[in-house]
Amino acid sequence: MAFLLGCEKVGVDFPTKTVFESVSLGVNEGDRIGIVGRNGDGKSTLLRLLSGLLIPDTGRVLKNGVVRVGVLGQADDLLETDSVCHAVVGDRPEYEWAGDARIRDIIAGLLSDIDWNVSVGTLSGGQRRRVDLARLLIGDWDILALDEPTNHLDVRAITWLAKHLKSRWREGAGALLVVTHDRWFLDEVCTSMWEVHDGQVEPFEGGFSAYIMARVERDRLAALAEQKRQNALRRELAWLSRGARARATKPKFHVAAAQALIADVPPLRNELELKRMAMARLGKQVVELKEVSVAFPTQDGQHLVLDDVNWIIGPGDRYGIVGANGVGKTTLLRIIEGALTPTCGTVKIGKTVRFAVLSQHLDDLVKFGDDRVRQVIGRYSRRTMLDGKEMTPGQLLERLGFTNADLNEPVCDLSGGQKRRLALMLILLDEPNVLVLDEPGNDLDTDMLAAVEDLLDFWPGTLLLVTHDRYLMERVTDHQFALIEGKLRHLPGGVDEYLALTESQGAAKAESVAPGARQLGSEGASAGQVNQDQPDQARKLSGGEIRSLRKLMESNERKMDTLQKKIEGVQAEMSAADPTDFAALSELQNQIESYQAEVDELELAWLEAAETLGE
Question: What distance separates the 2 farthest-apart alpha carbons in the chain?
Fold first, then answer.
């Protein structure tokens, strides 16, 4: 693999802290690297350093002279007066970019719902983000450096982006550096990880799952001072290994090894116990929606957001709501909590229900102004019960990653992630019995997301969650629902079922045509031509093919079990053999390696069959 980019003994100092100290690393062709770490440890700084936007204080950045690096920062440099068309494709002639199937696919994937001729200044923050991402992706880059690319994207757009990045370069070509808190995205597109901490960058082989496993093992052998961090990581690993994707994620991620590490980890949630506690606090009725519809007036008449929704939410239910941006998820939450009256239909809210809402904009923290965190928690004398333990406000803050130094910070000066954690803590101290979370993962790093998930696992009440982070969604909720064209639909198959539904609807309505392509006229491509240039969708398997694949999987499982027993038998022979008989020991070792090679080959075939079946 050819060297593309790197740094040698690099140091970066800011006025208040040392960010990096003597860091050396490299990026080669074919690398797909995810960058993780705590907020403020230097992930974005590392991207800027490698891409040439920041000059190090010591050391040097090394770059192959012909390498082209494309950078997506957290803030865009788009001109307010530019049209969307000009912001994305610039001054390139229409026939040039419209005739490129790759560019049309990017525009269709990210901008199909945005008017091609409106000015950038009229777009929302999420739309600007997608325009900036499309602008970058249509370029021809050797390396892409992406800082939080999934921000403001819905689940469907995130899935499209992951698919695009996986197929953008041929195998072994190009390189990707990505900073994101979206763990599903990291596991989907990355083959190695860099952890930024304490002024250093530590590499890990494999995606996010393998990274979590390696961190667990590292922390398991660390000092007792690291015990709290270890437990959080082992709980994270328990979710990864017990989830539906456990055996079908990556061939290199061996589930048997993971199961050994988590053998003594209890289940994530005791659902029956949590429901019993929830009923004691809530009674039998929580919220019931009957034939609820919501319509908002527009210039052309009425825009129907919710259409005849019927939904019963009971004590202890943990529901997740997915849907595209602007489809009405927040409206549905406001209806449920009684903050918005439906156009028609009825909403029944139980007499004992006490709502607590964590909004996207953290409006409840504004009232604290310059008050310091210590002053704010000092007003709460009550304790709260979590995981069967009574916790003070200070203990709860510590569990959410606040240090003693953070307690003296004014609330208005906290980072976005700190504000979100503080808001969640104050909500829990108010002891609600129905918790409504609207994008709670915004601004949180992966460690803090795991801490929040850990808290929510033991929260005894009804939980409603809206998030585009599919990992968080499937981690803390028991059932998922989709809001599609005003209708609420249960998703027994989780987020994957939602993606399949939206994909089939998009194909039926031909909504994936780029807005620019519709305007090409006689010189451009028609909608049919755009779709013909796209890769063919994977065809559906016949009943015979499904049976054949399942038979292959069952056969391989039996063969792997047989080979594993043979390996154990040979290992027993080695233990009983004469330790000085090197020839015999070498022969036995060769047998073990031969059996293990067969196991690896069978396991790979099993995984390929499972992936084909979508399991």
Answer: 90
CA–CA dist 195, 25 (Å, integer): 12
Rounded to whole angstroms, the Cα distance separating 274 from 283 reads: 13
Query: Please, what are the averages of pLDDT over each run of 10 residues along the chain (615 residues)?
Result: 87 85 91 89 91 91 89 88 92 86 90 88 85 93 93 87 93 92 90 91 86 75 57 60 47 51 56 55 78 85 88 90 87 90 92 82 77 82 66 78 78 79 81 84 72 77 87 86 91 86 68 44 36 41 76 83 85 76 76 83 78 68
The Cα–Cα gap between 500 and 48 comes to 37
- What pTM, to 2 d.p., does this model score? 0.59
Whether the Cβ atoms of residue 102 and residue 178 lie closer than 8 Å to each other:
no
E strands, 388-478, in order: 389-391, 434-438, 462-466
What is d(CA 196, CA 218) in angstroms, rounded to the nearest whole number? 15
Task: Give the separation between CA 82 and CA 489, rounded to whole angstroms.
Answer: 39
pLDDT digits (tens, 9 = 90+) for 39-95: 878 898 999 999 989 999 999 999 888 899 999 998 888 898 999 999 999 988 888
Q: How far apart are CA 517 and CA 123, in angstroms?
A: 20
Whole-angstrom distance, CA of residue 50 vs CA of residue 19 = 14
Instruction: Give the contacts of 568 (CB within 8 A, at least 6 positions apart).
Output: none
Cβ-proximal residues to 51 (8 Å cutoff; 6+ apart), any chain: 69, 71, 143, 145
How many C-beta neighbours within 10 Å does residue 170 have? 8
Phi, psi of 423 (to 5 degrees): -60, -40
Instruction: Please state, in angstroms and as integers, the Cα–Cα distance from residue 331 to each residue in 86, 99, 126, 483, 486, following that order.
Output: 34, 40, 18, 11, 11
pLDDT tens digits along 254-278: 555 555 555 555 555 555 555 555 5
Distance CA 479, CA 457 (A): 14
Does residue 320 sit in helix, strand or coil?
A: strand
Structure tokens at 278: 């929830």
- Give the CA angle between residues 361, 400, 415 to the nearest 5°: 45
Nearest CA to 476 out of 180, 195, 183 is that of 183
Q: Tell me the C-alpha distance between 450 and 268, whole Å.
A: 12
- DSSP sequence for 167-183: HSS-TT-SEEEEE-S-H
Beta strand extents in 115-263 (DSSP E only): 143-147, 175-179, 192-197, 200-205
Second CATH level (architecture) for the domain 275-491: 3-Layer(aba) Sandwich (3.40)
CA dist., res. 86 & res. 181, Å (int): 31
- Nearest residue to 23 via CA among 39, 7, 4: 7
Strands 389-391 and 384-386: antiparallel
Helix (H) or strand (E) holding 491: strand 487-491
Structure-token pair, residue 169: 């370069």
Contact 108, 512 (CB under 8 A): yes
Length of the chain: 615
